[in-house]
Design goal:
It contains 10 helices and 2 strands, in the order ααββαααααααα. With 255 residues, the protein is an all-alpha fold. It has a two-stranded antiparallel sheet with strand order 1-2. It is globular.
């Protein structure tokens, strides 16, 4: 391994070790939350709703829950990790180390990405025991989940860098991210909504991410898959480039 690879591996191992030390909070709690969603929406609403677009309601909901688990955990891991290290001054040592801004950014990014991916995979396994979940388009599904995980990991980095206190992270997660996820079509089909709510859902960028993941699992989508992939790739790349510029400048990386 080169010196650069060793530095990156060391930084990434520190991030993974950090969230694995509190597995009940970082892995157990999201799994319990997803199980409750499936139980409530499957048992309480599934019997009343029946099918959506020819698919059992609980099966229709599960792909969105998997994507939501990946997004929320990738975001919360990175935003809280960076802000915590800023307050503890631990990030000062990393900034003065031989590690480049790109290595630091990638280590933070993949720390959140791996936590989100772990929760999403465990959610998929748990859901498979409860419902018969198909996987119709593996390539689209893997590409969509990778881009979603990377995008929200980058979004967590951005919020963590710009945040000055933990309330800033909590505000972004509670009043921005969660409403976008819940109103992006996780629990419903936008085509069934009356106007202007259908149009408002189409404005939500998360709606297209959920559409990609749902298409990968169920083969059903209300959006253009190719265009959604192109725009998600472009948005993820732009956010990564912006974050890299912040790390190069050292913008707000010291509390």
């Amino acid at each position: 391994m080169t010196a650069s690879q060793i530095r990156f591996a060391s930084l990434l191992r520190r991030e993974v070790s950090r969230f694995m030390k509190i597995k009940r909070q970082t892995v157990g709690a999201p799994l319990l939350e997803t199980f409750l969603y499936i139980s409530v929406f499957g048992a309480a609403l599934g019997s009343r709703v029946g099918k959506l677009h020819g698919v059992d309601y609980v099966v229709f909901v599960v792909p969105g829950l998997i994507m939501m688990a990946w997004a929320m955990n990738a975001f919360s891991n990175n935003s809280s990790s960076i802000l915590q290290q800023k307050f503890q001054r631990a990030i000062d040592d990393q900034l003065s180390s031989p590690a480049s801004p790109l290595e630091l950014l990638l280590a933070f990014t993949f720390g959140g990405f791996l936590r989100g991916g772990l929760v999403a995979v465990l959610t998929f396994i748990a859901a498979s025991f409860l419902v018969d979940l198909p996987v119709d388009h593996v390539v689209v599904l893997l590409a969509a989940l990778f881009l979603v995980g990377f995008f929200f990991a980058q979004l967590g980095v951005l919020v963590g860098v710009r945040a000055e206190q933990f309330d800033d992270v909590s505000f972004a997660q509670t009043f921005v991210l969660q409403p976008l996820l819940f109103l992006g079509g996780v629990f419903y089909s936008a085509s069934l909504l009356p106007q202007p709510f259908e149009t408002l859902t189409h404005i939500n960028p998360v709606y297209y991410m959920i559409g990609l993941v749902r298409y990968g699992f169920l083969g059903y989508s209300e959006t253009n898959i190719a265009l959604s992939l192109v725009f998600l790739t472009a948005a993820t790349g732009a956010l990564f480039a912006f974050n890299h510029r912040l790390f190069v400048r050292g913008y707000r990386l010291r509390a």
